[in-house]
Amino acid sequence: LCPWLRPVTHCGLLRPHAAADAMTAAAVVxxxxxEIRDEAETQAQEQRNATVKEIFERLDDNGxxxxxxxxxxxxxxxLNKGVEPTEEELTFxxxxxxxxxxxxxxxxxxxxxxxxxxxxxxxxxxxxRVYQSSFADEKSMGVILFKKFDPEGTGYLERDQLQAMLSxxxxxxxxxxxxxxxxxxxxxxxxxxxxxxxxxxxxxxxxYQRQTLLQSEEVxxxxxxxxxxxxx
Length: 232
Known about the structure:
By secondary structure, this protein is mainly alpha-helical. The chain has helices at residues 16-59, 69-79, 87-97, 121-134, 141-149, 159-169, 177-187, 200-218; strands at 66-67, 116-117, 156-157, 195-196.
């Protein structure tokens, strides 16, 4: 018989010492599985780091240790199946991923250094891919929202259009001028007073953040100084 079956009695129950042995064996197996998982994650991270290093060194033509506008354009073009990004798309990615201080909630999105270091490369790639996924096809969130609130197809949401969209996302809730100021200050990376397609995710994240802050104030909780996130 299999060793696992030997401790079983006629009633089908494990004897006390056998049950303890089985529990110990299970704990050992669980620990080993966790160790293997950690090892796999470490190896995967090392592989990702090596890939980033390889990509960065290949793009950094002048060996400056950072990617300038031309080099980032080449990166985004490769990620976009050979189609070059627009000037605004390029500026957006470089401002979002460029070296500099993160934007605090409700504060104007300052112009960051328009260079991307090795540590910021994956942030640039992620930013670009999230933006593209939001407008990938007719069923994508960005396409649906811009069709509804930008009927003329300008590619931007003016204040009144942004206000209508945020209200719609909140089931008809009122959106005040202060709310709009908060969202635009947080999400208007290009600093043109309106929300572009690239800035849509930031605007939605800022709106939900605004609601959370207001709800915290209503119940007397301290404000949470969390950073604006990117929705996928």
